[in-house]
Amino acid sequence: MTITSPYGFTAAGVRAGLKSRGKDLALVYNTGPLKHAAAVFTTNTFAAAPVLWSRQVISDGRADAVVLNSGGANACTGPAGFQDTHTTAEQVAEALSAAGQDVSATDVLVCSTGLIGERLNMDALLPGVEAAAAALSAEETPGWDAAHAIMTTDTVPKTIAVENEAGTFRIGGMAKGAGMLAPGMATMLAVITTDAVISQPDLDAALREAVRVSFNRADSDGCMSTNDTVIAMASGAHPNADQAGVDLEEFQTLLTEVCMNLAESLINDAEGHRHVIRVTVTNAPSEEDAETAARAVARSNLFKTAIYGRDPNWGRILSAVGTTDVAFDPAQVSVSVNGVWVCRNGGIGEDRSLVDFPPGAQVEVVIDLAAGEAEATILTNDLTHDYVHENAAYST
Amino acid sequence: MTITSPYGFTAAGVRAGLKSRGKDLALVYNTGPLKHAAAVFTTNTFAAAPVLWSRQVISDGRADAVVLNSGGANACTGPAGFQDTHTTAEQVAEALSAAGQDVSATDVLVCSTGLIGERLNMDALLPGVEAAAAALSAEETPGWDAAHAIMTTDTVPKTIAVENEAGTFRIGGMAKGAGMLAPGMATMLAVITTDAVISQPDLDAALREAVRVSFNRADSDGCMSTNDTVIAMASGAHPNADQAGVDLEEFQTLLTEVCMNLAESLINDAEGHRHVIRVTVTNAPSEEDAETAARAVARSNLFKTAIYGRDPNWGRILSAVGTTDVAFDPAQVSVSVNGVWVCRNGGIGEDRSLVDFPPGAQVEVVIDLAAGEAEATILTNDLTHDYVHENAAYST
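Predict the joint structure of the above. Result:
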């Protein structure tokens, strides 16, 4: 159930010595026959060196391998940091070529995660690349190793794999981080593998749509990293693959499912949270409006602390929705928390003491704008003492 | 040094019984001769009943009195809540008229602050209005009483008064709350009084400019209330007033100073903070860009928790700046924290261990974008355990 579950991929996760302990370097290799790849990157102006590099690599729609490290983001490290990324890709190409694979450095994607503003320890990283290349395997365990190696403050590795009903293609994935392409303390990285036969443009379009409704709607604390990257690679290697090309609708459904699963895993593992919260806006003028309103609530510290206090404080929910430019009639808006409509038609609804917060269950907030038919859900967390503690203490 | 310091104003603060203890109802009356008034309100779609009412009152540029209550925001209370506000204004007009003042309810501004979604206790409020009208006085103490009566989670009343050098006009003010026109847990309310001779359009323009660079740049937690209101009233009653009209430039300078002082008082008293933080963006393409970038930093929970942890984490500062659409070269940006340039030209600068965080001192963050000549400062606070505690416990 990892990135090696689809045919045509090998992986490895090793300890290079970038972090104080544990595995910290992952390699994923697409053995083909297809080498199609697509990626979505952070829009942060301070995009890290590996993002700048990988944007160039992906521009022709081909990537043979991804190398990922934790223990350093290689962001705000200037031309020297970019050179480090370049050198890393060269080392991957060299190691794979030495093993009989014909790989160019310009087809090697690089991802890094960790602290910003510090150079990577290349003396540790480069031997790590050698070790990872030597350890590449299509078995399940190396897939898990890779997922372990990209963890920073994550408490568990996040992986998944699915196969379609007809058994003609699989999609696997791994991720790390604490939120959307605007994640928590460090970076959100995800690698998706598939053995479907799919053109690069179709893979690209499917990835963008899946990310839009999954990772981009998982918003733990509203902060966007310099390193966020989601990569998809297609090998076309499934033995039963439809050589005429995968059914795109079915592929989209499964890819979205995989991304949604990983996004939920990120939110479930977000730093210091007590509650996972689903903020759904219904009956909005447009899906974009629904997302805007739901995100405003998900980013309100007052709302997030209220949920931490198990307080169905619908006033703070309305306040947040009201700061957006979404068009609706405030006298028609209703809000439910865990199924109890505590606000009806912009005013007091059912008794808020009826709202239950069962331990371990997600908190479900629904905001009915009564202004259309569109809907969207943002996944987020509450704001807790532990979040403050963990983020006040991270680098010191 | 309160709202009664300028000539032509009386005030009172009494206990009506809306809160569990303490004064909770304030009245400010402009005895004239001028009755010019201006106001800036929240842009929240769920504007509270008193905001809806006061927008109508101010539309002709005249207001005779302001009545303010804590102990209830009267927001999301529907038509009945609006009727409560109307009734409150009627009661003020009646009480003042009974005392020989000719006041119409449509010239009475109303402000409320407290929990959203609960009706006001009118049986307590209306006798409170009577008591306040009877207690109106131009002395200093009633001005302080009024400032006390509008407090919610504030720990100290906020008042100020200044006089220009020539001794021809004064400006007084009071405020409550925890931030900008996007304040903390409850509402930001401010009332400014002046005895200058100034036209209503000039007063209005001066107030908007002063609010733009003061209250609107005090951003404690990024949340905007349903009740935020800043009111200015001019009596023209200073005995030495220039009857031809105040020097507008001098008036603007002093009004901005008053608003800035009150805004700083709000941030200094924000809920549960450990540090007051000044985020200044310099050398930006425009003042708006500078404000946008500074606000992005001020709203980053990762930055705010880092400062709580006394961590000059410039990576989180750059990350936040990078999420905006401000145009700059990331390789030219430098950041200082308390005078130490920890980031130079988008990369590592001076040793971050040189940064000192003296107890009680403001934290000064400067971000030099090297992309123009404009600058702006946002005042904010760190994100602390106490903020989480106070906001998780407020209504339950």
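The mean pLDDT of chain A is 93.
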